[in-house]
Design brief:
With 387 residues, the chain is mostly helical. It has one domain. A hairpin with a 3-residue loop joins strand 3 and strand 4. The N terminus is likely disordered.
Length: 387
């Protein structure tokens, strides 16, 4: 199935816009994907070599991210070569799975901080609402009081946003690894560190002289049974120029599960329109990734699916099912009264004498004391008295 050149050009830009929208929606206080380039084409790339800094900002950015790209590509090719030597089917697909697990395992502490911060922000909502009621009409004091409350409870709103922002370079690097690395004729230069070839990659496009030949296709065999060439978009239906992909649909559904698990339980008594809009946005945005099934290589969705499953398991262990249930009015028995394996604990508040004055009545008393004009006694007090 073909895709118009216009859609190929705007696809990555649309992806960036959607991911940034997800980050903004998730980073709003009080509530609770890596060197990019054009879409993969059948035309073989020149030999893949590390980027060098240039006069334009794009080459400089590519040079800065080259070490991360190289590490991820080396891990991917090492897993691929090992599975190929074992004769495993769909070796490149399983190599992407292994690379994803390695990346997410390294980032476990960072994502744990994100989950803990988001969960504590949910637990502290009643106190935040009390501050808003106390300082209604005084937004400056309300912000100061919220900052003091976060400081007391050891909560950093940025801790919940930073991992989401770090996902952007990782996702675009992975996109570049798949769209550029898997379609390249000779990527051995990216497998060499300080003059030493780390992975002895056996290319599938060697000619009679043992040299990679562009006429024989790319070096890596990226064809997977039932999926096709995962370095290219794989769609089963095209509607109005947009291709539908089974992998993209599966990725969107898993992201929807992840979002529902992270959202707090709906409160019928809370009619705050901002809260309702944020819940609807967080549940709707994962479905937009279905649109990108016609633009992005299928291998990127394998990465996305495995990473989302990893996140769901991590969330299950730390925050439990969240607001995943009831689903269409049904709550399974295993989700009733479930307690997470590693529940998030809220630090206790300090003693009243050690709390910030703005969080107690002391601030009001101090302010009221300044507004009282005490009656002066003595000769000056009698000076204006009638005789």
């Amino acid at each position: 199935m073909t895709i118009s050149p216009t859609l190929r050009r705007i696809g990555p830009a649309l992806l960036i816009a959607v991911v940034i929208a997800v980050v903004i929606a998730a980073c709003v206080p009080g509530a609770s994907p890596d060197g990019s380039g054009p879409a993969a084409t059948p035309t073989p790339h020149p030999p893949l070599t590390p980027a060098v800094p240039g006069s334009d900002p794009f080459s400089t950015i590519a040079w800065l991210f080259t070490p991360i790209f190289q590490v991820m590509f080396i891990v991917l090719m090492a897993a691929y070569q090992f599975l190929e030597n074992l004769g495993a089917p769909a070796a490149i697909a399983w190599a992407i799975v292994i690379l994803t697990l390695v990346v997410r395992a390294v980032l476990i502490p960072l994502y744990r901080k994100q989950l803990v911060s988001q969960r504590r922000m949910q637990l502290i909502q009643p106190e935040l609402k009390e501050i808003q009621k106390r300082y209604k009409g005084d937004s400056m004091k309300a912000r100061v009081a919220q900052q003091e409350l976060f400081k007391e409870r050891g909560i950093s709103p940025l801790a919940g946003c930073l991992p989401l922002l770090l996902q952007l370079p990782l996702l675009f690097i992975m996109y570049s690894v798949i769209s550029n690395g898997l379609t390249n004729v000779d990527p051995t230069a990216m497998l060499t560190v300080f003059g030493i070839q780390v992975v002895d990659l056996q290319c599938a496009n060697l000619n009679a002289q043992g040299v990679p030949d562009a006429a024989l296709g790319p070096c890596i065999d990226s064809v997977v049974p039932f999926l096709g060439d995962i370095s290219m978009p794989q769609t089963f239906l095209t509607i109005a120029g947009f291709g539908l992909s089974f992998l993209a649909i599966a990725s969107a559904l898993l992201q929807l599960v992840q979002s529902r698990m992270m959202l707090p339980a709906a409160d019928p008594t809370n009619d705050d329109p901002n809260t309702r809009i944020q819940r609807q946005t967080m549940l709707f945005l994962p479905l937009i990734s279905v649109v990108y099934g016609g633009f992005l290589p299928a291998g990127l969705f394998i990465y996305w699916i495995v990473a989302t499953i990893f996140s769901i398991i991590q969330q299950y262990l730390i925050v439990g099912w969240g607001s995943m249930f009831p689903l269409f009015g049904w709550t399974p028995r295993f989700a009733t009264g479930h307690t997470p394996r590693f529940p998030v604990q809220m630090p206790p508040p300090p003693e009243p004498s050690k709390r910030a004055a703005i969080l107690t009545d002391a601030d009001k008393k101090t302010t009221a004391e300044k507004t009282i004009r005490h009656r002066e006694r003595g000769r000056q007090g009698r000076r204006g008295r009638r005789r």
